[in-house]
Amino acid sequence: MKTVFVTVGTTSFDELSNTITCPESALKARGYERLVLQVGRGSVVPAADSCPQVKLEVFRFKDSIAEDMKQADLIISHAGAGSCLEALGAGKPLLVVVNDKLMDNHQLELARQLHIDSHCFYCTCSTLTDTLRTMDLSVLQPYVPGQPKHFANFLDKALGVQKR
Fold first, then answer.
1. I want to staple 44 with a disulfide (CB 3.0 to 4.6 A). Which of 14, 77, 98, 137 is the partner?
2. Ranges for the Glycosyl transferase family 28 C-terminal domain (predicted)?
3. 29 located within any domain
4. Which residues pair with 3 in a beta bridge?
């Protein structure tokens, strides 16, 4: 069963939880039949029957989401560095949704740099449906894990940190 896994990490990102359960026809049009949604500390917990076109499973937290990522055909993640790195490490196509409501929008910088390097697509909740319809997952390049210095340099570059 073709599966999408959505994670908000330990945060609250109700807008993503609401938005991803609405464009279910975009998910269905891409052949996805199952949506696994991790809602974290959010106040929105969609009912299992709220998406009649796809099978919806919702949870707040687990000790590990590695198995959910492993089983997914597509990972949709908030733009937290830890969640993005874990998703990239799983070797699955990644769509990063930036929370543009945050005051210090460092998430946009990280998502943009990952996209420039062809590791993911990114969008906001307002452009999620269009991005799902138009993205070409075949252009994504794998992120090579296991090089902490390269990742640290990447984060410095993405966040605009100047080295002395």
1. 14
2. 3-135
3. yes
4. 34
* Domain span at 45: 3-159
- Spatial distance between the Cα atoms of 60 and 151, rounded to a whole number of angstroms: 28
The tokens for 159 are: 């966040």
> In 3-state terms, what secondary structure has residue 141?
coil
Q: How does 137-151 read in b/e, with b if 16+ C-beta sit within 10 Å?
A: eeebeebeeeeeeeb
The pTM of the full predicted model, rounded to 2 decimals, is 0.85
Residues 6 or more apart whose CB falls under 8 angstroms from that of 152 comprise none
Asked if residue 164 belongs to a domain, the reply is: no
- Average pLDDT for consecutive 10-residue bins of the chain (164 residues)? 93 90 80 94 85 88 94 95 92 94 76 93 94 95 76 79 67
Q: Is 2 helix (H, G, I), strand (E, B) or coil?
A: coil
CATH classification at residue 27: 3.40.50.2000
Q: Rounded to 10 degrees, what is the CA torsion of 140, 158, 86, 64?
A: -150
